[in-house]
Amino acid sequence: MELLTAVFSRLLSMALMALPVMAVVVLVRLAMARLRVPRKYSCALWFAVGVRLVCPVSLRGLLSIFDLPGLYDLAEATGSVDGAVSALPPVAAAMAPASSAATALPPPAAMEGTVAVTAAASPSTGEIALMIASAVWLLGTLAMLLWGAVGMVRLKRRVAQAVWTGGEVWECAEIPTPFVLGFFRPRIYIRPGLTGMERTYVLAHERHHIRRRDPWWKLLAWCIVAVYWWNPAVWLCWVLFCRDLEMSCDEAVLDALGDQAKRGYSLSLVENAAERPAPMALAFGEHDAARRVKNVLKWKKETPRVAFLAAAAVLVVVSLCLNGASERSGSWARLEEGDGSDTRTFTYRIGKEYQSYLLYAEVYDHETLLSRTILDCWPLGEDWPDGQQPDPGPDGTVTEARSRRGTATLRAELMWSGNGTGTDMQWWGTVSTASGGTMGTNLGQGLVPEQTYWGMGWGTVGKSPGDRIELGEDTAVAVACLSTSPDGGIYAFDVPQGTERPEAALRNDVTMVLRLRLSTLDAESLRASFEAEQNGFAQTLFDLHTSALDAGTAAAMLETMDTASLGTYTETYQPQQHALDVAFSRQPADTDVLDRAMTDRGTLLLALAEDLEEVRWSYPVTAADGGEETITVYWDRSQPDGWARNLGYKDLRELGRTPAGVEALLAYLGWSDGETSLAQTLYGLRTDVTVDSLPQLRQIVSLLGLADKWSSQWELTAQQQTDSTLELDMGTAVYAEQEEALEADLRKTAMVLLALQEDLHAVRWSYEVMNPDGVSDHLDHGQEFTVSDANAWLDLSSSMIAQAGGIKALGSSPEGVQALLDYLSISGGETTGAETANALFQLAGEESPEALA
């Protein structure tokens, strides 16, 4: 029975794939008829329909009608993309036998005192319907073949007394119209008394059938009709195909005899019109004699131009219909069956850009993330020649790759103890292998906390059979929720999008999320990358994500961000105000540095705590009168939300819901586990926009230490809106003996600016010089330093840096910037993430010199 249902399922898929081809052929045939194109070209078009109904494999070509919107989905659904054929057509998968899914799973492990909650699989209503339909189809096919055979036998009995008149022609008085009968040695049967031109017309018509081997083509078409007897579209194609066969023979006779034969030939058709066509015979007057007469009277001799264009059109149409849809990039899974309480079955396809996959589980105790565990990690097939598996490893085992296209199943089970409560849960699953088999496995158990569970609910992506899900690099595929309450209640839940934290964790006691990660790395590298990621700074921060901040979580966040390195502090969470206060006990050495550092930490806090609206930090400073006053800085979501939008997120809350979002924010702020090199920081401020975007450049000057060593009153401006020259006014006076040192530092600063700023061609600086008495000469000293000057300084050195290709080339990579810093003897190998973040903060907050003013 399974073989019968599989064959019928395949026929359903092939019938669906043939429907668009039938439509195209009928429309093209209609257009050709209106243009008076000979019917022999219409006959050739039916080849595409026949192949689609007989052959399950599509050709590989550049273009196909199945590349059109809507038809591509049909090709995918029937497993006919780019010549591929699925093992079991998904068209009937919603009614597929249970053996293709549940029975393929290995039996649950024998665990003492435990029983799986899922019941033994039994045929569903859909499966029973499919089996009944398969049996009815088989009976109908046998009946059609029997009808054809009986008709053939009756026709042979009718002509048993026929008299041979020479050649392949026989006369029989029992037949209503002339016809051809037979396959290996076909005979032409005519009525006695058929003479003259009428006999010539009939014999010419029937002999053309024989020369073209039409009896065999009609037999093949009848067999297709017998198999697809339940399909009205196939019956329509049968009628049109037989009509085209007869009309093309009519036209062949006229082409041989000329226009003068039209009238006589038409009269012969009327005289020999058959009321009922015979399935196994080719009768002269069958298949709508009236239409054939009209076609004869309108016939015109074919010209070479018409022949060429018609042949080209047929070739194009047949190719478009027989080619399979070109495989598109992208990966997807489609739910085929499953009611949420038993096995879920998916069909899937994974794009060729991915080389491996990793399935992992996240476990939450309410909203607290407890663990992330790898459940399955395998290479994807088609990575080896001819689909072969790789060579055995050192231990002699061969790794079975997973298929990029196939069927996967998933089932969750709560393991019950003897007293009616659960002790653990586990996942079971199967997936298609590259060699065409199916591999089942216990994906994991012992992942949830050891405690008593009273109930479980679970679900997967896709709520109804046919729902299709696009697979990204990280996709949540299933959620299971467990209840520790005696009532066993489970609150409603949905599968989260991407790597978002599940909302189900907010309402249920224990939640487990299954996530699928696709990667361009090999399986071993993917596993190593995932394990390293779990120990990363972004992941550590994301693990603290919460929708309802409390004092303990706030303290943990500040501690993780190494806030103590900024000074001694106390934190206070104000739940009614949704605000966090951080009070530093001592005056900072540099208030700007502290504010920049806390701006970063405040932004991260707002991203990680969804209900937090404001972060406030305060510190004491010396007042103008010598006393002490407290400065308080308020930091809300308004500006960081803009940064999040710059990174492609709706707001800061959405950004903080995934590890990738936190990682992106850290990169935006310039953090790398809290520290980054000066060269990396400077490179992060590199820009290829116009020089009017000055915030980065001012931050570069600040990071190079001019303010600390010479003056905090310096100012950097652009000479004009379209000028590519910067002016650096130190805003101070120096003694003559300091001028040389200042010039050296300014030259170094200019070289770094020229390297990092793509459109910058010159830097001018100015300052005043004081005499020994401390009186300024009120004259601007300094010079203009250009790209050519910078390259000349590099060329004077014997260092390998001279071979880098110029000052601009040095600024094109962090390594080049580091080489430049080493050459200029600029230290400061590491700067705090706060300093880096401040540069980006200024960049986001100030867009032009006018805004800065």
Q: Report strand order across the widest sheet.
A: 12-11-10-7-6-14
Strand count: 26
Helix vs. strand class: alpha+beta
Beta-strand content bin: 15-25%
Number of helices: 27
Mean pLDDT across residues: 76
Give the biggest beta sheet: 6 strands, antiparallel
What characteristic shape results from the CA principal axes?
A: elongated
Radius of gyration: 41 Å
Q: Give the termini separation.
A: 83 Å
Tell me roughly what share of residues is in helical segments: 25-40%
Uncertain ranges: 83-121, 383-389, 829-853
Throw out a few tags for this protein.
elongated, 27 helices, alpha+beta, 853 residues, disordered C terminus, five-stranded mixed beta sheet, six-stranded antiparallel beta sheet
Notes on the structure:
With 853 residues, the protein is an alpha+beta fold. Helices cover 39% and strands 21% of the residues. The chain is built from 27 helices and 26 strands. The strands form six sheets. It has a six-stranded antiparallel sheet, with no helix packed on it. A five-stranded mixed sheet has the order 1-2-4-3-5. It has a five-stranded antiparallel sheet with strand order 9-8-16-15-13. Helix 1 runs antiparallel to helix 3. It is elongated and about 140 Å long. It starts with a helix and ends with a helix.
